[in-house]
Specification:
InterPro entries: CO_DH_gsu (IPR010419), START-like_dom_sf (IPR023393). This is Carbon monoxide dehydrogenase subunit G. With 150 residues, the chain is of the alpha+beta class. It has one domain: Alpha-D-Glucose-1,6-Bisphosphate, Chain A, domain 4 (2-Layer Sandwich), CATH 3.30.530. 27% of the residues lie in helices and 51% in strands. It contains three helices and seven strands. It has helices at 15-22, 25-31, 125-149, and strands at 2-11, 35-42, 45-54, 57-71, 75-83, 89-100, 106-117. It has a seven-stranded antiparallel sheet with strand order 1-7-6-5-4-3-2, with helices on one face. Strand 3 (45-54) and strand 4 (57-71) form a beta hairpin. Helix 2 crosses helix 3. The relative contact order is 0.25.
Length: 150
Protein backbone atom coordinates (compact mmCIF):
# COMPACT_ATOMS: atom_id res chain seq x y z
CA UNK A 1 0.00 0.00 0.00
CA UNK A 2 1.64 3.24 -1.16
CA UNK A 3 1.20 6.76 0.22
CA UNK A 4 2.50 10.18 -0.79
CA UNK A 5 2.88 13.26 1.40
CA UNK A 6 4.47 16.65 1.07
CA UNK A 7 5.00 19.68 3.21
CA UNK A 8 7.44 22.32 4.31
CA UNK A 9 9.03 23.57 7.49
CA UNK A 10 10.64 26.97 8.13
CA UNK A 11 13.78 26.51 10.19
CA UNK A 12 15.41 29.40 12.04
CA UNK A 13 18.94 28.54 10.94
CA UNK A 14 21.17 29.27 7.94
CA UNK A 15 21.10 26.77 5.07
CA UNK A 16 24.64 25.45 5.77
CA UNK A 17 23.66 24.56 9.34
CA UNK A 18 20.45 22.82 8.19
CA UNK A 19 22.42 20.83 5.59
CA UNK A 20 24.94 19.77 8.22
CA UNK A 21 22.13 18.60 10.52
CA UNK A 22 20.49 16.62 7.70
CA UNK A 23 23.71 14.62 7.52
CA UNK A 24 24.20 14.21 11.28
CA UNK A 25 23.12 10.75 12.55
CA UNK A 26 22.54 12.12 16.07
CA UNK A 27 20.16 14.83 14.86
CA UNK A 28 18.37 12.39 12.55
CA UNK A 29 18.04 9.82 15.34
CA UNK A 30 16.55 12.42 17.69
CA UNK A 31 14.09 13.51 14.97
CA UNK A 32 12.85 10.10 13.75
CA UNK A 33 9.82 9.09 15.85
CA UNK A 34 10.50 5.84 17.73
CA UNK A 35 14.15 5.63 16.65
CA UNK A 36 16.12 3.45 19.08
CA UNK A 37 19.43 3.52 17.23
CA UNK A 38 20.90 5.00 14.09
CA UNK A 39 24.49 4.22 13.17
CA UNK A 40 26.54 5.15 10.16
CA UNK A 41 27.62 2.00 8.29
CA UNK A 42 29.10 3.70 5.19
CA UNK A 43 29.44 7.22 3.82
CA UNK A 44 25.80 7.48 2.75
CA UNK A 45 24.29 4.54 4.64
CA UNK A 46 22.96 4.10 8.14
CA UNK A 47 21.54 1.15 10.07
CA UNK A 48 18.36 1.93 12.02
CA UNK A 49 16.15 0.34 14.66
CA UNK A 50 12.75 2.01 14.95
CA UNK A 51 9.82 1.05 17.18
CA UNK A 52 6.46 2.12 15.74
CA UNK A 53 2.89 1.71 16.84
CA UNK A 54 0.25 1.70 14.13
CA UNK A 55 -3.21 1.19 15.62
CA UNK A 56 -3.06 -1.95 17.78
CA UNK A 57 0.22 -3.19 16.25
CA UNK A 58 3.56 -2.25 17.81
CA UNK A 59 6.59 -3.44 15.90
CA UNK A 60 10.34 -3.06 15.93
CA UNK A 61 11.73 -2.42 12.47
CA UNK A 62 15.35 -3.18 11.64
CA UNK A 63 16.49 -1.56 8.47
CA UNK A 64 18.81 0.54 6.43
CA UNK A 65 18.68 4.21 5.57
CA UNK A 66 20.39 5.51 2.42
CA UNK A 67 21.18 9.09 1.44
CA UNK A 68 21.37 9.68 -2.32
CA UNK A 69 21.17 12.45 -4.94
CA UNK A 70 23.34 14.56 -2.65
CA UNK A 71 23.39 18.19 -3.77
CA UNK A 72 24.98 20.18 -0.92
CA UNK A 73 23.58 22.39 0.54
CA UNK A 74 20.38 22.23 -1.52
CA UNK A 75 19.01 18.81 -0.69
CA UNK A 76 19.06 15.05 -1.05
CA UNK A 77 16.93 11.94 -1.12
CA UNK A 78 16.63 9.92 2.08
CA UNK A 79 15.20 6.43 1.77
CA UNK A 80 14.82 3.52 4.10
CA UNK A 81 13.46 0.03 4.34
CA UNK A 82 12.70 -1.87 7.50
CA UNK A 83 11.48 -5.33 8.36
CA UNK A 84 9.18 -5.68 11.35
CA UNK A 85 8.96 -9.45 11.67
CA UNK A 86 5.37 -10.74 11.60
CA UNK A 87 4.08 -7.14 11.53
CA UNK A 88 5.37 -6.78 7.98
CA UNK A 89 7.63 -4.26 6.31
CA UNK A 90 7.79 -0.53 5.74
CA UNK A 91 9.79 1.33 3.17
CA UNK A 92 9.78 4.90 2.12
CA UNK A 93 11.72 7.97 1.36
CA UNK A 94 11.67 11.70 0.96
CA UNK A 95 13.13 14.18 -1.46
CA UNK A 96 14.30 17.05 0.71
CA UNK A 97 14.99 20.52 -0.74
CA UNK A 98 16.48 23.45 1.15
CA UNK A 99 15.86 27.05 0.09
CA UNK A 100 17.42 30.09 1.76
CA UNK A 101 14.92 32.42 3.42
CA UNK A 102 17.17 35.36 4.20
CA UNK A 103 20.57 34.86 5.86
CA UNK A 104 19.28 33.24 9.05
CA UNK A 105 16.42 30.97 8.00
CA UNK A 106 15.83 28.06 5.65
CA UNK A 107 12.68 26.59 4.11
CA UNK A 108 12.86 22.78 4.10
CA UNK A 109 10.45 21.26 1.57
CA UNK A 110 9.78 17.56 1.36
CA UNK A 111 7.95 15.11 -0.84
CA UNK A 112 7.70 11.79 0.94
CA UNK A 113 6.37 8.38 0.01
CA UNK A 114 5.77 5.28 2.07
CA UNK A 115 4.85 1.71 1.28
CA UNK A 116 3.79 -0.87 3.86
CA UNK A 117 3.01 -4.54 3.59
CA UNK A 118 2.16 -7.53 5.74
CA UNK A 119 -0.01 -7.40 8.85
CA UNK A 120 0.25 -3.61 9.14
CA UNK A 121 -1.18 -3.16 5.65
CA UNK A 122 -4.34 -4.96 6.77
CA UNK A 123 -5.16 -2.18 9.26
CA UNK A 124 -6.78 -0.07 6.57
CA UNK A 125 -5.58 2.76 4.43
CA UNK A 126 -7.05 5.61 6.51
CA UNK A 127 -5.24 4.57 9.69
CA UNK A 128 -1.96 3.99 7.86
CA UNK A 129 -2.25 7.28 5.96
CA UNK A 130 -3.01 9.33 9.09
CA UNK A 131 -0.17 7.61 11.01
CA UNK A 132 2.28 8.18 8.13
CA UNK A 133 1.36 11.86 7.85
CA UNK A 134 1.68 12.28 11.61
CA UNK A 135 5.11 10.60 11.67
CA UNK A 136 6.39 12.68 8.72
CA UNK A 137 5.09 15.86 10.37
CA UNK A 138 6.70 14.90 13.70
CA UNK A 139 10.04 14.19 12.05
CA UNK A 140 10.24 17.52 10.23
CA UNK A 141 8.92 19.65 13.11
CA UNK A 142 11.28 17.98 15.64
CA UNK A 143 14.15 18.36 13.18
CA UNK A 144 13.27 22.05 12.73
CA UNK A 145 13.14 22.63 16.51
CA UNK A 146 16.47 20.86 17.10
CA UNK A 147 18.31 22.73 14.37
CA UNK A 148 16.64 26.09 15.01
CA UNK A 149 17.44 26.05 18.72
CA UNK A 150 20.99 24.69 18.48
Amino acid sequence: MALNMDGEERIEAPIAKVWEALNDPEVLKASIPGCQSLEKTADNELAAVVVLKVGPIKATFNGAVTLSNLNPPNGYTISGEGKGGIAGFAKGGADVTLVEDGPDATILKYTANADVGGKIAQLGSRLIESTSKKLAGQFFSTFGEKVGSA
